[in-house]
Structure formats: C-alpha cells, structure tokens
Give the backbone structure.
Amino acid sequence: MNLHEYQGKKILEQHGVRTQRGVVIDSVYQVDDLSKELIDKTGTSWFVVKAQIHAGGRGKGGGVKLAKNLTDLKEVVSNILGMKLITPQTPKDGKLVSKVLIAEDVYYPGESEINEFYISILLNRKTGNNMIMYSTEGGVDIETVAENTPDLIFYEDIDPSLGIQPFQARKIAFNLGLTGLAFKEMVKFITLLYKSYVSSDSSLFEINPVLKTSDNKILAVDAKVTLDDNALFRHKDYLSWRDLKEENPVETEAREVGLNYVDLNGNVGCMVNGAGLAMATMDLIKQSGGEPANFLDVGGTADAKRVETAFRLILKDPNVKAILVNIFGGIVRCDRVAQGIVDACNNLDNISVPIIVRLQGTNSEQAKKIIDNCDFEVYSATEFQEAADKIQYVLN
Ligand code: GDP
Ligand code: MN
C-alpha cells in the first residue's frame, strides 16, 4: 500500500526522525487557522505548498510552490488544490490534487550551498537483507544518477536479525561527505530512519531529498513510503490511511474479493492458479506475440463464482482481445473449473473475446470434453505450445 508524503512523514515523526513539519488541508478556507498553528509550531511564515498525490516529480510539474506570506499562501494553495497535476509519473492527463501539505520552508534564505542527499531503504532480493541505498546526488531523479553516474550511488546491506550497526550508520554519513555536527546528526537520522522502516513493516522508504541545513540539521523533506500489505493486519491505524482515489479501481475490487490481481498494459487477459504458473503463462503470452493485460492468481479455489468474478475483472479492461486460462488441477478438479468457465460464460452476457483454456491435472480429460462441447467461443488446449499457437491464431 502506497502512502502520501504527509502520511509517510507522520510515521517518521512517530519514530523521532526529523522532518519538514507541516499541516494537511483540503480546502483553502483552512489556511488561516492552520497556518497560524504552523507559525506557532515552527516560528516561520515562509512556507512550501506541496500537492499530495501518489506520484513523484511533483516539483517539476508545478505541484511544489513557495509562499512568503499569508496572502501568497492562500493564492498558491487555491492554485494547487483542484489542479490536474501532470508529472513524469502520473497518467498522461494528470492526477487531481485534493489535498495539499503546507510545510515550513526549510531552505533558509541566502543559503549558499544546498546539500540535498538521496536515501532509500528497501529489500535486497539477492541477499535477503534490508538495504540502504544512498547518494550525494539528492533532489534529482535517482534514475538519471543511476544511468549517468552509477558510482555516486552507494549500497549498505543490513542484516535484519542484527539491525543497523553503529559503524554502518557512520560509514554512510562519511560517504555522504559529512563532518562534525552534521556527521553526528546524519548518524542519528539514519539509525532512526532504519528503525522506523522496520517497525512500520514497510517495503520501501525513499527520502529524496534529505536536507542538510546551514546550521547542520538533517531532515526529511520528502517521503515516499510503501507499506507491506501482508503486515497491515499489525497496523490497524495505517489501514485507514488507504486512499482509494489513488488506486486502480479494478485492483481494489480484486483485493476485496481476495483475488491477487495486478493491472498491466497488454491485450491478453490471463487467469491462472499459482503465482509461478502465472509468471510462466505471462512468458507464454509474450512468446505468442501478445502482451499480458494483467497478472491474476485465482489461488487454490477456482470454483464457478471465482472464475466468474475473475472474468468480470479482466473484461473491465477494454484492451483485452483474448483470455488465456491456465489451471493446474491438483486438489482443484479440472472438470469443476471447466464447468465454472461455462457457467461464467452463461452468466456474463458480454464476453466478446475468445477464451483459450488449458487445464492439466486431475480430471483434465472430462474438462476438455466440457470445453469442446460448449456453445461459446472457448477453445481447449492441452500443451503449453498448443495454447500459445491458439493465442497467436485468435490475435491475428
Ligand atoms: P517531488 O518533486 O515529488 O519529489 O517532491 P519533493 O518533496 O521532493 O519536492 C521537490 C523539490 O522542491 C525538492 O527537491 C526541493 O528542491 C524543493 N523543495 C521542497 N521543499 C522545499 C522548501 O521548503 N523550500 C524550498 N526552497 N524548496 C523546497
Ligand atoms: Mn522528492
């Protein structure tokens, strides 16, 4: 589950990580009251207004603006609230901004050199450890840094059973070129950031930029946080932070009925039991000249109801030109699945695309008969290659 910047910062603050402080509003009428509260809290009336959407690159798209007094602030807020913000990470027509964060401007006026760093924490899938990825080149696209100057990105593996060791935090602060007080502050920042990552059960923290102010404070200016869905049951308070407006509606519906569905850009919908078989099936679709339109693992129970729901979700995507069903019958019996497919075709009267069904395993022969004898545009296949050929055929 992805969070908004202001929610991510709340997690950081709960664990003592210094952030750019602010308040969130969804209407320009709240500016007066809340900005006074903010002035009291921070002692500054120089603000930055930041659009809260689930996408980065907001600065470039005009979603991050400065204001130096209350009149400016109201104007900036009313310009950003309600805008369709277009950034390199949003859909082409942008995302509607329905909340803004008003934060203290932490880039002090007259600052001669700006020190922005990049720090993220994520899982290193090769080593099975957590990993801190960091760079002196903060504030810009990390993808660009990775492409042009990959040697400016550093990695530090953290053994999850040991946690971050003091020497590791010091090494990071050293590699970031810090000395004196800033060095100490960075060591503290990294240590608390790591603890915050672990105790919130996150799968990604990306803090870009981390700022060093001229008086040597280290703080998080931005926060991109992804929580691990599998651990959400331990964080009931975060559960209510889900912003459905920011999520793909089909994925939301799938989650509600317990289907594992990820929307993709291709033209062949697929329905598979088991994540491994789903991956292999997506490869198969590519080999036959199609592109997978989704990843869908129906799990262990592929009964008629579930098959019907899965078809309904797949068919919401107008790009789908064919559907491939690839089910391995172990405990689940293939004839039951086949009957489920036929029932689903009966119940859904808008299936206008051909369906290729490969059922292997328990009772696969009876299943093939059911498929071959039905009145719908459903074709059976026994082997992988046969399924691939049939997809190729229906796409052309
Ligand atoms: P992103 O563009 O979506 O990654 O949003 P960020 O929160 O990273 O903000 C974009 C950029 O705005 C940052 O890289 C900073 O350079 C700038 N910025 C953010 N907060 C402030 C601030 O308080 N004062 C000033 N002057 N610039 C800021
Ligand atoms: Mn950023």
